[in-house]
Design brief:
mainly alpha, minor pseudopilin epsh fold, three-stranded antiparallel beta sheet, 3 strands, binds fe (ii) ion
Length: 229
């Protein structure tokens, strides 16, 4: 990620006038910091399925921590890169994966949700519906398998519906901690199985959370991601 950011900065540097270019290249590159995205709905909009307090803490505290951690990891890698210190850069890589994954996963997650009175709940439609029926038999069967995958996560993690961009087929996968879905798999719909996502409301009854969240799943967003993937 850091190398991509540096490439774009160097591209930008090449576009400045020659007189300014030397000065620009002699200074450290400037990158845009990751920021916490606004939610597309209010904290209380997913009641009664996800409580206001959970949404507020999950977004403003937990997600913010991943954003801050990602920026700190990128700063550390940039400093190591400038100093030619590969050992320091390698040391920061796990933090980049954890906090970068946390930021990416939660940014997708908020868009996966919508108030039940708006786009939340219901059933998928169009090309996504056809693909789900082809690969899982029915939406009901997909939800059943999804909930079983969530229940099978040991410790913290996520379950995802993803599209294999090579074969075009759908896949249900789990990831530990904040590991992002990567490679040929494009994440379409993720459900957060960390305790911070449900414990304040559902305590140890996490199966109730996995069952309730389908009332606020935004299938429209999932369908749009499917068609773009
Ligand atoms: Fe989370």
């Amino acid at each position: 990620m850091a190398s991509l950011l540096r490439s774009s900065t160097l591209r930008a540097a090449r576009q400045v006038r020659p007189a300014a270019a030397a000065a620009s290249l002699s200074t450290s590159f400037v990158r845009t910091k990751a920021t916490l995205p606004d939610l597309p709905y209010d904290y209380n909009a997913l009641e009664p399925y996800i409580s206001t307090k959970i949404m507020e803490l999950h977004h403003s505290k937990h997600h913010q921590t991943y954003v801050s951690g990602l920026n700190a990891a990128l700063d550390s890698i940039a400093e190591a890169n400038q100093a030619g210190d590969a050992r320091k850069a390698a040391k920061a890589a796990p933090l980049l994966n954890f906090h970068g994954g946390g930021h990416i996963n939660h940014s997708l997650f908020w868009e996966n949700l919508a108030p039940a009175s708006r786009d939340g709940g219901g059933d998928p439609s169009g090309a996504l519906k056809t693909a789900i029926e082809k690969d899982f038999g029915s939406t009901e069967a997909l939800v059943k398998q999804f909930n079983a995958a969530l229940a099978g996560i040991q410790g913290s993690g996520w379950a995802w519906l993803a599209k294999d961009s090579a074969s075009g087929t759908l896949a249900l996968v789990t990831r530990a901690n904040q590991d992002p879905v990567a490679g040929s798999l494009v994440p379409l719909l993720g459900i957060d199985a960390w305790e911070h996502a449900y414990y304040l409301q559902y305590e140890n009854r996490k199966a109730e959370y996995f069952s309730a969240i389908w009332n606020v799943i935004n299938w429209k967003t999932v369908g749009q991601r499917f068609e773009k993937a």
